[in-house]
Amino acid sequence: CSDGLPQRTTSLAKEAEDGLELQFATNVLGSFMLMRELLPTFSRGARVVLVASQLANGLKLDDLQSSTLQPYHPIAVYSASKQAIRMLAAEAPRRGFSNAGVIVTACHPGVVTSELLRTLGIATGPDRAEMAAQTPLKLALDAPPESGTYHVDKKPHPCKFATDVRAREELWRKCDELAYKCIQESQSALQA
């Protein structure tokens, strides 16, 4: 999800059916759950490319769903979700992905015309979709990159969010707890 799900409203967070903030649920928890659940099926050498953003910033580990952000600001929530994506990519090698031979990276694909830009009042992005696809495709198909790294313009790029191991561990733990809760609730709903 490079475009995320920015909301035009600035007063209330948009909630998914399960009560989670929609951008967090889609951009972070959805990516986390898919990556984690597919790990046992990956072959050695498989790659996971998470789409982040240069807008990544502002994640509060004590408020992952931005419930205390008043007024609700969709771009701030989007930025926090993309910071979380970068942190999850950096933490994944320590969580069994490296042992399984799976490479996990994150990247900023570029800035293309999107609903997010329209929300910001920008009609068009400077990059064409074909250009924006180059970094994720390079990470998926070319010589294996180092797992846990962040890339911009097809090159490794320093990521300040990757250096705080405790914060990464806490984010992973909280995502794991929320994923477990979502799975339990889904199973209960199916049995009802």
UniProtKB/TrEMBL annotation:
Pfam families: adh_short (PF00106)
MF GO annotations: oxidoreductase activity
Transmembrane helix as UniProt keyword: no
Key words of the record: Oxidoreductase
Xref: SUPFAM superfamilies: NAD(P)-binding Rossmann-fold domains
InterPro entries with a match to the protein in the record: NAD(P)-bd_dom_sf, SDR_fam
Family the entry assigns: Belongs to the short-chain dehydrogenases/reductases (SDR) family.
Protein name: Uncharacterized protein
